[in-house]
Write a structure and sequence with these properties.
five-stranded parallel beta sheet; Arc Repressor Mutant, subunit A; 11 helices; Rossmann fold; single chain; about 260 residues
């Protein structure tokens, strides 16, 4: 399963951290836990370095509390991830309601069903834009007409297949109707025609050595083959990076 979301756990209770780590791994296999921090300053540094999509942030931590971490990120104009506050104090709900950077709040003891719902919601919100730079970076190797509708639809096709790999099983039956539901200017047949035209035009104008590098021994590139190749390259890169993160994180947990 392709990893879609990076998550940082920030809580000064080490036993709680380990239990939460194990639970999230069971709850959702689209999430990679990229780090655990046990004080506010370390949390701040890890957010800057690791750029997680989500932070499970305890409010009461040493050095900097959770609110101070958020304030420091804001003051230094650092991109703030989606923050889920963790607290045992009900009176802090008023702060939550007035702070835009906080996505949700979980009261201790954690309601794991609610946690699962919040994580699923964030995944559904984030997936469409998460890998935009990666997709465009790969497509920039080829001579596409980037102003064409086919190119725009192709990017959406790749995004959709990153989230729902089954769409690649049958483009006409699964993928194109799915994409058509997100556009008002085209039905599935028009999307199919535009994407195929874009890929065929790219094939004619792209340097043959580049085509051979990405598609060895291929005299023709089908839409399915092209999308599968791009999706595979992105999946391999991100899953490799996440495997490294998790290897070192597990070593860190064992040495807690």
């Amino acid at each position: 399963m392709f990893i879609l979301i990076n998550l940082l756990i920030a809580d000064d209770n080490k036993d709680f951290d380990i239990n939460l780590f194990n639970l999230i791994k069971k709850l959702n296999n689209k999430i990679c836990i990229v780090g655990i921090s046990v004080n506010g300053l370390d949390t701040y540094e890890k957010i800057k370095l690791l750029k997680p999509d989500i932070v499970l942030l305890d409010i009461k931590m040493p050095i900097l509390n959770g609110f101070q971490v958020i304030e420091k990120l804001v003051s230094e104009k650092i991109t703030i991830p989606k923050i889920i506050l963790i607290t045992a104090h009900h009176d802090l709900l008023s702060y939550y309601n007035s702070t835009n950077s906080i996505y949700g709040i979980l009261l201790k003891p954690i309601n794991y069903h609610k946690l699962s719902q919040i994580l699923d919601s964030i995944i559904n919100e984030n997936y469409s834009s998460k890998f935009n730079d990666e997709i465009i970076s790969i497509l920039s190797n080829f001579d596409f007409n980037v102003r064409s509708k086919g190119y725009k639809y192709l990017i959406e096709c790749i995004r959709a297949c990153l989230k729902f790999p089954y769409l690649m099983n049958n483009l006409a039956r699964n993928l194109y109707p799915y994409i058509a539901n997100h556009f008002t200017d085209a039905d599935s047949s028009k999307i199919k025609w535009a994407v195929e035209k874009s890929i065929n035009s790219m094939y004619r104008y792209t340097n043959k050595e580049i085509l051979e590098k990405f598609f060895p021994n291929s005299k023709k590139i089908s839409t399915k083959y092209f999308i599968e190749t791009v999706v595979s390259k992105i999946e391999c890169k991100w899953n490799y990076l996440h495997s490294i993160f998790e290897y070192y994180l597990i070593q860190f947990i064992y040495n807690f």
